[in-house]
Design brief:
Elements: H1 5-17, E1 20-23, H2 25-34, E2 42-50, H3 54-66, E3 72-75, H4 82-90, E4 94-99, H5 101-109, H6 114-139, E5 145-148, H7 152-157, H8 168-173, E6 178-179, H9 183-186, E7 191-195, E8 202-203, H10 207-213, E9 217-222, H11 231-257
Parallel strand pairs: 1-2, 2-3, 2-9, 3-4, 4-5, 5-6, 7-9
Antiparallel strand pairs: 7-8
Helix pairs in contact: 1-3, 5-6
Amino acid sequence: MPSRMEGYNQLLQESQQRGYEFHSIRSFWQLIQAGVLQTDRRYLVLRHDIDTDRSGAEAFWQVEQSLNARASFYFRLSTIDIPLMQKIEASGSEASYHYEEIASIAKQLCLHGTQQVAHQMPAIRQRFKSNLTALRQQSGLPMSTLASHGDFVNRKLKIYNYDILKDSELREELTIEAEVYDDAINRPLTSRFSDAPYPRFWQPSDPLEAIRRGDAVVYLLTHPRHWHPNPKGNLADNFRRLAGGLRYSTCVHRKASFR
């Protein structure tokens, strides 16, 4: 697929022309906390999950810079780019952590049931704490809102990475203000959209429909691989995911065979 960044630019331009304010997760959360969301204003909340392709993250940021738009960029450990994250933060947008420690440890230890994950949860939370603390120290960024990553292991186990932050004491200790799946963030949303692969492009539908009808709070989740051409990087990521899936399935099968 060719670059779709011009289409993203046009979507933001039309939103701006129709009176939408651009917000990152953090700036939107601050409005919620302050109790100043107004029913006669329109809000467009922009979130990017940087699962792959740092250059795609920068392409999103450049489009938003041209329109003075704020957005949130959540980076996995595999996509961390400290200089880019610092530039994003300095521009008024937000750069933070796309965490996945439940999935990582489940794959590492070949966990295959919710009880096994629950048993490892103290170690999982400790690794999460260490990773977040190290990222904050390396970057100097607050990383006060976070977004959990979804992995095939989470779907198999039916336990998700955001379960790490169901511990209120951990949140308080690490001064985490919000997680993107918190009810308090999602409750004010009028409509929510995520990008999707060709040929669908969006799910559940095109967000321009909601923007044109004037929905009060529109939330967009996007990923670089659906917008920015990086065939080598995407192919490499596909192979890594395939290899990881095979390793995990083989491990689980072996464990089951020894019972």
